[in-house]
């Protein structure tokens, strides 16, 4: 049962990922991306990481895809990339390279089964305390420095984006009001 | 006062800083008051320290200020040793230094028809002079070899700065010496002050390497540089070292003693490394008096007396010291016989007298060495200052061939020069007589041969001193224009001269030959010996075999008598029958030329060391550095620039190509780690 | 619940998704699509973290994913802002147009 769900979701995930790439319409690509993010959320649920799954839906599917769509809307016509056909020698070589990478990593995964020391973040404990509470407790104790740094990163990102997005060519709003009628 | 002994150093140092920083702004009159005052205050503090030391019966006291460096077992405190020896040196340095400061306040000023012209760099001069006093006090007060070494280097630097004080003056060509009825003898030009300073610095460096190596060897052998710890460690096995050295072994103590002595050879101008001292006379005369006669050059003697345990444990090196000292004294005295430059005569006599001091400490007569150091500081400072007074009056002329009859014009200068000269000559009952005689007596106990060299040198000393005196102050003026120009100097010059002259005559009271006088029924203490007794550690069993009273009296009489006879000979040669020296010079012309040219040692050094070193330096700088090294550096920079031109074409500006390059790089990395099994160890 | 699907399945899936993302970055020229592909690569990595986290009973993997999400959000925001700015100058989002850093 588990395995069946996994396989079906994995197929959807791979297909939507390919769909993002091999699509001439950017809006369609964004829709495939949305689907892709949602399948990942499914995997997170299956992996007993329900909290992250919800965050995945909220941040990726909600915020990021919407942001991308918003920019697509803003830029409008100029998005088109002139693609006469998909099957070209260049693309062939690139796909081959990608397959080489896949082969290498795949071989490594199959040949070297990975193990490690088990931690104390067990499903029983999660049942008892609740996942959000446990992650929150870890985040704000052991990883407080990372949280602070992430906050600073976000702040820097906000400032950077504001600075990038301002348009010095546009006149200030107050100066826009015609004054000849005086 | 003992705990405030650091003030002795701090006061002149503050003076140096004040004069160096504000000296130009506040004007020369303020500088002329500040500089001597700081030294005088230091002298007072030193006097207090000396009295307290006397009250403690000479017991040494350490004054630790702070720890300067602590690296592993090496612990270097900034601390001062207050004991009879250091106090003696402090009093000599600050006392004589103060008088010379006073003298210099007038010497460095020129009076012209009522107008006053201070030297262009009046403030700089006093800043350096104060700095020298502070440095010298670091040398004598430090309670470990590192502090001593720091002072040792600081006084060397001050000496360099002051010799080259008139750095823009050129070489001084010298007139050839006319010999009646024969060919005249060429005299090499005097080096410029800048070159002289450099010569002094470089020659001193050679000795300092030896000193530094000696200090390193002490540290590696005994693990301490503190005098008290070191000396008690050596003293416990001194007998053993002494025995093995006497059996012909070259012990580690011998090596230390020899290396330290190499330092002393440089600083105190002993044979092989003495060549800088005569040229150091290019500095202002107060500098010659203070640094190159009274204090700095005696640092080597001080160092050996301070290290008397080491030298007593190394009789082989002590013997070497005595031989070098005796040879230097004789050698320098022969050169002084024929010099025509008043200051050079005094300079060679300084080398010669330093030789006496080393002979004394070499034969184990440490007290006698310090005694002669003190009296020498008095009379040699007096002589130099008097010579400077003459120079000042004659407008910087120092060639005795152009003087003559100056006694009538400059009575005070002439009288003090006479008194200092008598002391230097060892005229009976002057300070020089007692100190020199004590050295000769000890040398006689050690080896009559050393005594022989010493007594011959003493005769020559008396002769050349009075040769200079008679030529300069007596007879007819040989340069009428100069003579008319001459005048006696002010009180600031003659005052210190008289004080030093009195000290030069009565300084002998510090070390009357007590045993002899005791035998004669007069009980007087040997002040110096009682005073210094605590710092001299006896090594080996000396049977107190004083020579008999007769021998002592004969020795005294012979050295005193020889001095009187030599003075009379000089009087006959230069006052009564002027043709004798000319005849002598003509008949022994090769020897005469050899002496005038100082045995051609400078020329020899130039050919053997200086020229090859310069050639090597030029080769290194032009051939190796400018061509090879610079070629490699410039070439690599040029090559990189050229390479960059080609490589920059790889930067196509197409992001997709960069991405592709990155991807391929990742492929290789992943392939390396995953396929070749080079897993980081956290995976398995 | 866990155990039915072996860990290596997740790792393999993650590898496939990462490769697809990387291939997309190489093949496409449209900056927005490239941005999307980069996001996909990050998600592939996230999947690995979460898989390890739950198989090894450790919270660290999930915390890591959390941080990556923050970085990804900032990255998208800044990246899109850059795009808009570039578009103002060049009237294009094709990355081959932006080659003024040519050596």
Structural notes for this entry:
The complex is a heterotrimer of chains A (182), B (684) and C (103). With 182 residues, chain A is mostly helical. Chain A has one domain: NADH-ubiquinone/plastoquinone oxidoreductase chain 6, subunit NuoJ (Four Helix Bundle (Hemerythrin (Met), subunit A)). Helix content of chain A is 73%, strand content 0%. Chain A contains 8 helices and no strands. In chain A, helix 1 packs antiparallel against helix 2 and helix 2 packs antiparallel against helix 3. The radius of gyration of chain A is 23 Å and the shape is globular. The mean pLDDT of chain A is 83. Helix content of chain B is 71%, strand content 4%. In chain B, strand 1 and strand 2 form a beta hairpin. Chain B has 684 residues and is mainly alpha-helical. In chain B, helix 14 packs antiparallel against helix 15 and helix 16 crosses helix 19. Chain B has 29 helices and 4 strands. Chain B starts with 5 loop residues before the first helix and ends in a 9-residue tail after the last helix. In chain B, the strands form 2 sheets. Chain B has a two-stranded antiparallel ribbon. Chain B folds into 3 domains: 143 residues, no CATH class; 405 residues, no CATH class; 33 residues. Chain C is mainly α and 103 residues long. Chain C has a domain of 67 residues: Helix Hairpins. In chain C, helix 2 packs antiparallel against helix 3. Chain C is elongated and about 50 Å long. The termini of chain C are far apart.
Give a quick summary of the entry.
The complex is a heterotrimer of chains A (182), B (684) and C (103). Chain A has 182 residues and is an all-alpha fold.
List keywords for this structure.
heterotrimer, A: 182 residues, mainly alpha, Four Helix Bundle (Hemerythrin (Met), subunit A), 8 helices, 73% helix, B: 684 residues, 4 strands, 71% helix
